[in-house]
Design goal:
Layout: E1 14-18, E2 24-29, E3 38-39, E4 42-43, E5 47-54, E6 63-69
Antiparallel strand pairs: 1-2, 1-5, 3-4, 5-6
Amino acid sequence: TWIIINAERFPSATIKVYNRWGKEVFSTQGYNNDWNGSYNGDTLPTGSYYYSIDQNGDGTVVLTGWLYLTL
């Protein structure tokens, strides 16, 4: 699972993850540290994925970066 430290401090946060082609593969509001790297029930391929975090859920993205999924 992907664990975001202190995620519980921002219950309105919007989290989005995109593949290398810019397709959104994960989105949630109020992250519970429970995403397992799947999309529509299928495990995503190994590789780099871009993420954005809007801490207040108001459209202002404050954190971005890359994560790497492995099997």
